[in-house]
């Protein structure tokens, strides 16, 4: 049979070359590409009977989508918290697909790559060796995993095996936090804890970090045990809970301490900023994203947890003889939600070895310096109001427009800024005000980018502030 698949097999080298050329062209133009674009695409390719082969599929992709690709990995994409891809991370990611190894047990190098990458990361972050680290698909899955093991621990305190009996055997478990990321309540929903079991504790005035004395009071008045989610880098203002104080309370009252350090964990790369994480090495579980500040491609994050038996109790593939006995032999798949999994660690392995502690220190400190620079110019500009001091890599601000118009004005402004293609940021609400966030976590971002983005931001702000102030 004249199968396209057989034909492509013969031309694998050429197909890789075509793909490499496409990638190179994309990357060499990423500085000029729009950071964001609202696109409408008519996706109407019919499922082909015979197939067109890889080369024609690439051509079809170029035609259909080529004009709608954006520089989300570029230097002026400041929306959400979105890292880029370092050159070495791209090498590792490409090889990951070329080899297609399943990173589970010792049946290939993939297992050792993951184990070694976790060890490298622990060194980078200054985390103790006793944490079991595993790659998962993102910080949401990492938070899910930490909470799942925390839930198992809470059950154990009460003589209940939740992995076996389910949450029905332990009603009323509460998760406490100050300013939790939305993925926490999502994970609670998935875990059967229920979103309504999230207790948001008071935060300090003009801050997003928990009020430790309010937590202490809560613990004195309510019967646990609880799970507490510490925030090490909130998305609006990158505020940090006082983790060292949380550790003391945990030791006194007994709760599971999970730290969501999705991007804030990278403060550990800098001698100047690592104090923000003081005490995190004593947490029960820690979430750190890789596809944000580590600048590896989507989808990669790590869960670090220091209770391996509880972790296996939750995630083991019990009774699947063909997967082996979880107690007899370590296998990643018995410790995390995913079973079959790509070699997520390899892009990180490449990037960590390629750039070292020094490279990541520079990356983190450079982004922080640039965020502060942007914060300073906005603060000096009467069109803007800086809503919080720039603590790390996020600038949270709004337009200088009071009253009812503020919402509409900020929306109109953000739409115009993002439509410019020069820079992309996201909307938020901070301290009850419509606000804008610029999150700088990309290795490509430079002073030139901040200047360029600010010029666009300023010109559009003048227009909109005038319109709403003198309308
Ligand atoms: C991004 C983020 C998450 C969710 O991460 P995903 O990688 O998108 O799943 C969770 N917590 C914090 C603090 C984050 O910044």
UniProtKB/TrEMBL annotation:
One of its GO terms (molecular function) is transaminase activity. Keywords: Aminotransferase, Decarboxylase, Lyase, Pyridoxal phosphate, Transferase. Belongs to the group II decarboxylase family. InterPro entries: Aromatic_deC, PyrdxlP-dep_de-COase, PyrdxlP-dep_Trfase, PyrdxlP-dep_Trfase_major, PyrdxlP-dep_Trfase_small, Pyridoxal-P_BS. Gene3D superfamilies: Aspartate Aminotransferase, domain 1, Type I PLP-dependent aspartate aminotransferase-like (Major domain). SUPFAM superfamilies: PLP-dependent transferases (SSF53383). This is Aspartate aminotransferase family protein. It holds the Pfam family Pyridoxal_deC. Its cofactor is pyridoxal 5'-phosphate. Transmembrane segments: none annotated. PANTHER family: GROUP II PYRIDOXAL-5-PHOSPHATE DECARBOXYLASE, MIP05841P.
């Amino acid at each position: 049979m004249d199968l396209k698949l057989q034909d492509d097999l013969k031309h694998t080298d050429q197909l890789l070359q075509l793909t490499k050329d496409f990638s190179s062209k994309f990357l060499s133009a990423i500085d000029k590409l729009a950071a964001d674009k609202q696109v409408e695409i008519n996706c109407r390719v019919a499922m082909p009977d015979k197939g067109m082969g890889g080369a024609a599929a690439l051509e079809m992709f170029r035609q259909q989508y080529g004009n709608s690709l954006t520089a989300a990995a570029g230097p002026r994409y400041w929306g959400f918290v979105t890292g880029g891809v370092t050159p070495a991370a791209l090498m590792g990611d490409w090889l990951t697909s070329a080899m297609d190894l399943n990173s589970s047990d010792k049946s290939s190098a993939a297992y050792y790559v993951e184990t070694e990458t976790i060890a490298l990361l622990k060194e980078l972050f200054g985390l103790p060796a006793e944490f079991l680290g595993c790659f998962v698909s993102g910080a949401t899955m990492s938070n899910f995993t930490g909470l799942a093991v925390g839930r198992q621990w809470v059950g154990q305190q009460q003589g209940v095996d939740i992995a076996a009996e389910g949450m029905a055997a332990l009603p009323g478990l509460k998760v406490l936090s100050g300013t939790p990321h939305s993925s926490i309540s999502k994970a609670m929903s998935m875990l059967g804890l229920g979103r309504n079991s999230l207790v948001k504790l008071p935060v300090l005035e003009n801050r997003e970090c928990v009020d430790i004395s309010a937590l202490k009071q809560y613990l004195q008045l309510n019967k646990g045990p609880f799970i507490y989610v510490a925030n090490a880098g909130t998305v609006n203002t990158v505020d940090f809970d006082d983790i060292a104080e949380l550790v003391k309370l945990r030791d006194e009252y007994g709760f599971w301490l999970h730290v969501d350090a999705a991007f804030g964990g990278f403060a550990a790369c800098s001698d100047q900023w690592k104090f923000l994480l003081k005490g995190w090495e004593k947490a029960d579980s820690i979430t750190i994203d890789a596809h944000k500040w580590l600048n590896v491609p989507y989808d990669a994050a790590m869960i670090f947890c220091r209770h391996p038996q509880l972790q296996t109790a939750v995630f083991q593939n019990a009774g699947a003889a063909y997967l082996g006995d979880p107690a007899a032999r370590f296998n990643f798949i018995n410790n995390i939600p995913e079973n079959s999994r790509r070699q997520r660690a390899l892009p990180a392995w490449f990037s960590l070895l390629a750039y070292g502690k020094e490279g990541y220190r520079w990356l983190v400190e450079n982004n922080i310096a640039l965020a502060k620079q942007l914060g300073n110019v906005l603060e000096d500009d009467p069109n803007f109001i800086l809503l919080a001091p720039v603590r790390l890599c996020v600038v949270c601000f709004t337009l200088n427009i009071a009253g009812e118009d503020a919402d509409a004005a900020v929306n109109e402004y953000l739409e115009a800024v993002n439509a410019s293609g020069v820079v992309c940021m996201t909307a938020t609400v901070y301290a009850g005000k419509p606000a804008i966030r610029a999150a700088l976590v990309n290795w490509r971002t430079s002073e030139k980018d901040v200047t360029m983005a600010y010029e666009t931001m300023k010109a559009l702000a003048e227009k909109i502030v005038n319109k709403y102030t003198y309308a």
